[in-house]
Amino acid sequence: MSKASYLKRYWQLYALLSLPLIYFFVFRYGPMYGVQIAFKDFNLFQGIAGSEWIGFDAFREVFNMREFYTALRNTFMLNFLDLLVSFPAPIILAIMLYEIKGAWFKKISQTILYIPHFISWVIIGGIVYQLFGNQSGMINGVLEGLGLSPIPFLTEKGPWLVTYLFTGVWQSAGWGTILYLAALTGVNRELFEAAEVDGATRMKKIWYITLPSIKPTIVTLLILNLGKMVSIGFDRPYIIGNTAVREYSDVLSTFVYRIGLESGQYTLATVVGLFQAVVGLVFILGSNYISKKMTGDGII
Amino acid sequence: MTVNANQKVLKKVLGIGLSAVMGMSLLAGCSSNGNADTASNGGTATNGGSKERVTLKVEIFDRGNSPAPYTITNNYLSNMIQERFGDPNNIDVQFVPVQRSEEVTKLNVLMASNTDVPDIVFTYDSSVFYRYAQQGGLTDVGALIDEYGPTLKTFLGEDTLAFGQLEGQQMAIPGKRAITGRYSSYIRQDWLDKLGLPVPTTTDELYTTLKAFKEKDPGGNGGKNIPMGMALAPAQFETLIYSFIKPIKGDLTYGQRYELPLHDGFKDAMQFLNKLYNEGLISKDFSLDEDKTQLAKDVQNGNIGYWSEDVDNIFYADGTLDNLYKNVEGSKLTAVDVLTNANEGNKHIKSRYASNGMYIMIPKSSKRAVEAIKYLDWMASDNNLIDIYSGVEGENYDLVDGIPVVKAEVSKEFADRLFNAGDTAIISNGKNIGDQATNEKAWISGFPERNQEMLKQSIDIANTDTVGPIVFGKPIEAESKYGTTLNDKLAVIIVKTAMAKPEQFDAVYEQEIKDFMSLGGTQLKEELEAALKDL
Amino acid sequence: MSERISNRIFDIVIVTCVALFVLFCLAPFLHVIAVSLSSNRAITSGEVTIFPIELNWNAYIQVFSNNAMIRSLGYTVMLTAATTGLCMLFTIAAAYPLTKGYLKGRKTFMVIIIITMFFSGGIIPEYLLMRDLRLLDSTWALILPGLVSPFNLIILISFFNNIPQSLEESAEIDGSSFLRTLMSIVLPLSMPVLATLALFYAVGRWNGFQDALMYINSPELYPLQLKLFQMVQNNMVSELTQMEGANRTALTPESLKAATVIFATVPILLVYPWLQKYFVSGVMLGAVKG
After folding, report:
1. How far apart are CA B312 and CA B352, in angstroms?
2. How many CB atoms within 10 Å of residue B58?
3. Nearest to residue A183, comparing CAs of C191, C182, C15, C94?
């Protein structure tokens, strides 16, 4: 096809795409020159252009900080555990909701399940302490009443990790179901009827009909999640974390907050950001490649 | 079929979206008009000056507590300032709100923009001030104060001004602090009476008393009994630590909290805390209680026998003290000064504030430095500070012996005038009226009458044997570089060493201190010691 | 027979699991409601769990009598509607062409977009951009920077890709233009995911306030969540608020905070039940049959 006729045929697609692309270039790539800060001794008042180049000095500094590695290790650990626990939770919950027959119960529960997503972490933090505290926590109060010894939910590594994961599931599982429920609307109900005739059990139907129909969504979200393995939200580790478990709850975002925002060392903060970006990009492209090879589904 | 139905829905949705967008542009138009209105508001008043009218932009903390109909940029005080200072000087005073909790982030961005930064900015954080000064972003105001700020200079005095001097240049104007006492301690008198015990007067006696509280449970609290209230907050652990450390230089010592581990006696403090924790004498969950919520709860429910607090903390209307008396019948509190420092002649060593408040700065890019100084000078002149702090005589306060005493019953309308008084009167932290005693009197008058007597005792305690920060006159670079990291580390040291098994205390302590030193503590120590020699 | 019983057991197990989780999710919300209706004495003494103690409506009276609060609610609703509309428009415009495998440059565009998920210029260059575009202190500053979320875009592309190609191809053979195919086939078949993404954008905008912290100076343009944030943060005792000494401001009562949380949360909670009607099963099926 010649260039002219190609354009003549597809100009509408390019026209459609042009608006969002302009957006990406102006608002996303426009400020991108800021990544230079990682290679400069950034002075607020001289600006990015006026600050002196320092090459990779700041990278060397960051990669020599022990805290950086602790934060990196914790970020990986918490993200990996989340991938094991918090990632499947909404899938399971969505399938359960899909299996529920009572329309009334289904609707109400869906609406309630996503409420935690709207409660800010500051408030969740307060509630978590009330529930899980050693002396004042309600759960330990009950345990004590039963003559059992209290569990240090918040101050020891193992129990703290469980608490961290639990609050994550609690906060995001209901919200996460929404997308899967949207995907489940595409399931062909006739397949179930056919399976019924063949005498398939409920579990079999879920396994062979329901799950495959949301597979593309699962794969897409999994790839996106893998891209975020080295980035982590600030609020949850910061608020659920506390001084007693600082060695496990200090993650890259809290680390950057400390050195970047509180100490004003923009250069170091940018270096960490750049590191996270490069690793994230490699992860997402890599997992996309593998997924394409293995399942045929991918994001590009 | 379905397709058709959904198409309709889709059109509807798109329609709603579009009309919303159009509505929005209208709205945006409105709001920008609104802004122009507020900006030109002050301009309507005419005055004779031939000079061109200029705009002075002043930062203001926004805490989201503006009572209707006021906003943070348009309220009783902003109007008063425009009227009394702006109009006569042909200046539009424009307030630029900065969210209190995000002040440094926002200030950095404003500073980097050069164009949008207010002519007067401020922060309580000395390291932010040092950073700006070091990067060459601030105006040296020394000469300007001499020329345009004589009243301001007298008001602040040399001692306070010294906090803003770096390498001999006046890079910031420090606000003046009216009250430097910080912490007091309290004990349940009714518990003591019940056990027939005297008020403890030394650390050792306190320990015995706490033991008795633990064993005899005079409050009848069972498992909730907490002889000594503790939280991971300065008011609790700093009082304890200060009662063990040897100050560096007379009644002065290193000013930053994370510099406490560099003092002799710090280990003793941790050892004592470890003992208290392991014997079950302090709050078990103190490591989780960084904002003192749990502590306040336990106090109000009558579970706590002894604790330390910020001097004013418990005395507010419907506050901790009021609630304790309401919740626990027969409860009685006494303000006490117990902890004695064996390393410093058994004095009741405790921390006090430096005599400065916030650091007020004029960015180098500002073209209104002269007007800015004039504004601060105006604030220090005549009755202006009292008017900002205390409102209108007869409506907000009565003058008793020259001290503005807050009226007991003030209507909401009048009280609302002053919602941002403390943040507006930037040159003064607290009510600076005269000497410390006068300032305290004025401050106490703002509290419920029933609590004033004990507050006075608390303040007296807070002022006893205090130790203040050394002023080096130059930035300590390790402070700005490692400060936040070490501050976090300090909390970890306290928690880990307190919660260690007694036999493991030494090992844990050594390990944590080693960590502290490797995270920047070593550099900090060397720099501080060098700076001390230069003094 | 046994199959019916096992089916029954299966149902009971599922309903019980979901019901339990629902209770978990509801309890903290009930706690916040209880706090908003209790006396401050009861709250600070830690007596309130999920039932109000010393019940009173003062906090709500205070919230609803605050004109600035009500106005902010109206503004936030408008802002959220406008943002959602524009975001959907831009996201759809980007997603549809990118589903066409034959489109030249498609992979490049995808990479360009994915890069922005990870790299950003940082807060200072972003602020300077907004200044240079003269968007500071305007509603647009809260809308334009977030027009397309790459995350949502990729999800939309993945859903578009699941529409049977045969449907679109038949339309294209009919001589239908791409725009018409998009409007008459692709979008109507994608209502569930469109509703979902609209919800994501709406909730994102509703809950967001960080941009307003940076870009907005006029109190009239504060979104509701910013006001809420101020109120919550106002109670935080940090290192620096310590230094405020005698200038410390009175704390916001917990009940008022909780009432504001409810006031700022309930409107957006109502969006989902309303959107649920687009989650109809078998949309695709009907189309294929029709």
Report:
1. 14
2. 22
3. C191
Cβ contact A262:B104 at 8 Å = yes
Give me the DSSP letters along B399-455.
EETTEEEEPSS--HHHHHTTTTHHHH-TTEES--SSSHHHHHHHHHTTS-HHHHHHH
For residue B392, what are its two tokens? 């209108």
**Rounded Cα distance, A267 and A47, in Å:** 12
Q: With bands split at pLDDT 50, 70 and 90, how would you rate the model's confidence at C68?
A: confident
Residue of C45, C176, C232, C277 best to disrupt the B interface, most CBs of B under 10 A: C45
Between chain A and chain B, the number of residue pairs with CB atoms below 8 A apart is 93
* pLDDT of C274 over the 90 cut: no
Q: B365: which chain A residues are within 8 Å (Cβ-Cβ)?
A: 45
Distances (CA, A) of B307 to A187, B19, B302, B303: 63, 60, 12, 11
Which of C131, C184, C278 lies at the smallest CB-CB distance from B115?
A: C131
Residue A47 forms contact with B (CB below 8 Å): yes
Cα-based distances in Å from B299 to A188, B233, B296, B320, B323 = 62, 15, 5, 7, 9
Q: Distance between terminal CA atoms of chain C?
A: 38
Q: Please give the helix or strand (H or E) that residue A221 lies within, else none.
A: helix A211-226
Provide the strand spans (E) within B63-191.
91-99, 121-123, 165-166, 169-170, 173-177, 183-188
Q: Indicate the pairing of strand B466-469 with strand B350-351.
A: parallel
SS3 state at C225: helix
CA-based nearest residue to C20, from A96, B125, B91: A96
Helix (H, G, I), strand (E, B), or coil: what is residue B357?
Answer: strand
pLDDT < 50 regions, chain B? 1-49
* Set of chain C residues whose Cβ sits within 8 Å of the Cβ of A115: 25-26, 29, 269
The single residue listed with the structure tokens 């209208």 is B26
Question: What pLDDT does B49 receive?
Answer: 47
- Cα separation values, A100 from B28, B149, B305, C19, Å: 46, 76, 55, 11
